[in-house]
Amino acid sequence: MTAGHASIDPFRHHGGRIDLARRIFPDAPADWIDLSTGIAPRAYRHATVVGDARRLPSPDELADLEHAAAAAFGVDDPARVVAVAGSELGLRLVAAVLAPQRVAVVRPGYGGHLTAWGDAKVVPVHDVAPTDYDVTILANPNNPDGRRVARTELTVAAKGSNWLVVDEAFADADPIDSLAPLALPNVIVLRSFGKFYGLPGLRVGFVVAPPEIATKLRRLIGEWPVATPVLRTATAVYRDTDWQARQRQFLDSAAARLDAMLLAAGFAIAGRTALFRLARHADADTRFLSLAAAGILVRPFDPGSGLLRFGLPDGRSQWRRLASALQETPS
């Protein structure tokens, strides 16, 4: 492998490493475009009150957020919805509460699912309903290939599982298969905030769990799991159903435009959600390097996989730069 191709390896585990990209590719344009994550390019616009940061969040505000999120998720009982500082942390809190001995992690999938379980024995599996495990975890829709498992199939899988943990980080754009509304006694659902609403830096997410697990989580995280300005912003977002509908239309249109651009550049679409496309190319690593040279970061995967994941560009300038970089002949 050439030195250029070796420089790709640090980007294979997860997206969002713009600072690292600047160091590894110092000759690229300074104004990098980050398409390596599945985060909506259009963010919700809501002015928070800066002064709110001068006081602790109140229990009423936290309850208000959890009620608003429950309504958005189709959950009848807000007591099942626990706000945490991001769904990534939520996964680790669930691991601490369940304390499993053996965990089945459905692959391919999000890399963090493999690393969250402490001292438990983690076994990669390809079946959504394996037997003889304390916990089975999968993403639906899946990351990075966008694979969806129908709600009916997951419901059947839950009947044969001890605990089924479903990461629904990409479900907000199309929640038809979400298990969150069903209140199944052995199912825990993780929901992300930042991806669909384009505000990942606020670090808020949710664990939707049976009441006994929700109670244990609240005892573990204490009274102030989310900052005051975040509470107010996220509550407003979850109640703005008109904006949510417009966002879904926007994402569908942008994703279709990205499809056309990738196909014209010789890629095949290997997987999809409303927030990203997984694309296949015979020389994916070379295409990654060519894009990086143009100051565009995408997400590579295992050597030889031929796969790159593209998020959605933000605005005309980014679309033009991506189109230009895709049409350049890699050196």
Tally of separate helices: 12
Structural class: alpha/beta
Radius of gyration: 20 Å
Spatial arrangement of strands, main beta sheet = 2-8-7-6-5-3-4
* Proportion of residues in β-strands: 15-25%
Mean pLDDT: 92
Order of helices and strands: HHEHEHEHEEHEEHEHHHEEHEEEH
Q: Percent range for helical residues?
A: 25-40%
* Beginning-to-end CA distance, first to last residue: 16 Å
Structural overview:
There is one protein chain. Helices cover 38% and strands 17% of the residues. The radius of gyration is 20 Å and the shape is globular. It is α/β, with parallel strands linked by helices and 331 residues long. The model has no long low-confidence stretch (mean pLDDT 92). Helix 5 (112-115) links the parallel strand 3 (102-106) and strand 4 (121-125).
Briefly, what is this?
The protein is an alpha/beta fold and 331 residues long. The chain has helices at residues 3-6, 18-24, 59-73, 87-98, 112-115, 151-159, 194-197, 211-221, 228-239, 241-264, 284-293, 315-327; strands spanning 33-34, 81-84, 102-106, 121-125, 135-139, 163-167, 187-192, 205-208, 268-273, 276-280, 296-297, 299-300, 307-311.
Topology:
Layout: H1 3-6, H2 18-24, E1 33-34, H3 59-73, E2 81-84, H4 87-98, E3 102-106, H5 112-115, E4 121-125, E5 135-139, H6 151-159, E6 163-167, E7 187-192, H7 194-197, E8 205-208, H8 211-221, H9 228-239, H10 241-264, E9 268-273, E10 276-280, H11 284-293, E11 296-297, E12 299-300, E13 307-311, H12 315-327
Parallel strand pairs: 1-11, 3-4, 3-5, 5-6, 6-7
Antiparallel strand pairs: 2-8, 7-8, 9-10, 10-13, 12-13
